[in-house]
Design goal:
By secondary structure, the protein is an alpha+beta fold. The protein contains 3 helices and 6 strands; from the N terminus they run αββββαβαβ. Helix 3 links the parallel strand 5 and strand 6. The protein is globular.
Amino acid sequence: AVTSQVDLAPTLLRLLKLPVPEQLDGRVLDLTRPDAIEDRAAFAEATKWWKKHTGEPDPRFPNRGKCRSVREGKYKLLQLPELGQDALFDIHEDPLERENLLTAPAEEVTRTRKRLSKMLEGWLDSADPLPSAPVRGLDGDTATRLEALGYFVESD
């Protein structure tokens, strides 16, 4: 089943017999019955900030230029907006994501791309975006540690 990192907190809280706040996005997973975990779409986006090189960013928020993906069932759609490219993979048949099904789209591939693109667009419209600009005002040590994790920051 497709699960997401947002499922970790509620699942761990339940395992620790602690209350699970209603405002958490994730769901409690029954780890004693993995076959009973209901499949659902999982969304992801790059965490590094992105600066549009030409033109104006999308008015909703500049983060729309980040790489992003949605996975549902056996399919994963990857969008690379800055490059103007999409890729669709059958994760069951191609777990290393080497064969982009969009290079020779069949009818099912075209329908799947359209459906997943619509889901991803809906998620982007509703998501609370990560900052699109560097975090400023951090001390040098904190900035160095965050940069080592892949974040772009500016120190004082």
